[in-house]
Every structure is written in structure tokens, then in C-alpha cells.
Amino acid sequence: MAKEIRPEFFTRNVIDVARDLLGMQLVSSLDGIKCVGRIVEVEAYDGLNDQACHAFRGCTPRTNVMFGPGGYFYVYFIYGMYHCVNVVCDQADRGSAVLIRALEPLLGTETMQMRRKKPSPKLLCRGPGNLCNAMAIDRSCNGLSCLTKRRLWLEPDQVIKDSQIQTGPRVGISRSVELEWRFVIKNNPFVSKGN
DNA sequence: CTCTCGATGCGCT
DNA sequence: GCGCATCGAGAGA
User: Fold this and answer.
1) Which nucleotide is the nearest neighbour of A170, by CA and C1'?
2) Inside any domain, residue A190
3) Nearest nt (C1') to A50 (CA)?
4) b vs e for A52-66, b when ≥16 Cβ sit within 10 Å of the residue's Cβ?
5) Structure pTM?
6) What is the dihedral of CA A73, A77, A83, A87, to 10 degrees?
7) A107 belongs to a structural domain
8) pLDDT value of residue A2
């Protein structure tokens, strides 16, 4: 946790940002309670070039944040009961973002267990809907800066080497399934599917 | 272990 | 109306 993340970190190609987000910490603070998890699984969504991306059909009230500059959270509500959190990246108007799919719980584990009613640490933050539940992430977090340490933010932690990253197809989509834009830390027990 | 299916709200065609 | 970047319960093998 030595250095700070620079704003330019986010205004790069979505694939590069996705890979570099692995190992970083996602921090949530609510009512004075802090929860921290290490990012171990992500997926890249490349805006107007990517049929599976919410931004593919252009800028709407929902996708508005994705068309802003990199460095902000895009949170959406899905299947009537779950939230998913993304990190917007690249230049404004690209519409690209990185979905956070799993965390390794580091701090505030008991709070997360209460929110999820699940005792097993391995299952606590496994899957995008589950991790948002554990970290109390909802649509009120949409549009927040990733660098403002108030409600939800990112902090540097481990640097993951390319040789420690495993690539595969994205989960749960029906279009552009051939793109291998899911990235996980090899052999990490907290990812949402076996590696 | 694998597979199917229902829950449930909302953005878009 | 349809379909969705999900999850977990329940059935079957």
C-alpha cells in the first residue's frame, strides 16, 4: 500500500487496466465500518467495439458514467436483485469498463459475513453480485471516483505478474462469447469458478 | 459432482 | 414484453 494510484492509470486500454487491477484493493466504508478485499477476478468490456458491453448501444441515462473518463465506478442493478460494480477506464466517450467479479476478503470479514449470512470466507466475495452484497455496494455508488477515499475506492497493493494471470471467456454473456477477456489470478482460491 | 430453474426489477425494442 | 455482465436451491447421476 505504498504508492497512490495516479489518475492516468485508468485512462488506458481496457485490457491493460483490467490486468493491472488484479491484486489491488477495493475498499468500502459505510457507517464507519471499513471492508477491504483484494481483486482476484475481473472482466474487460470494450465499449462501442464490444457487443457484450452495456455501452455498445450508446450513451443512455444508465450507461452515462461509462462514457465519462476513466477512474469512476459504474454500478448497475441486474436480475431484479443484484448489483455489479465496474471501474470505468480509457478516455471519455469510449464506454469501456472493467467488471470486478471476485475479491479475497482482507478486512471487515465479520461485517461481510453478517451482510451475506454466509460463514465461509471463500464464498464471501465470490461472484459480482455476492461481492457487492458483502461490501454494501449499490446504485448510490454509481459515479463515485475510484480515488476519493470516502465511500468506495481503490488502493494499490500487490502487483501481479503476467505469468500469474490466467485468461478465459467471460461469464454469463450471450454475445461476443469468443473474446477471452476474463482475467483471474492463477490458483487463487477466491475466484468465482475453478481455475 | 452437474444441470435446471425460479426469483425479481428495470432498461430497452 | 423480452432479456439480462446472477445466485442458490433442488433434482438427478
Assistant:
1) C5
2) no
3) C5
4) bbbbbeeeeeebebb
5) 0.96
6) -20
7) yes
8) 57
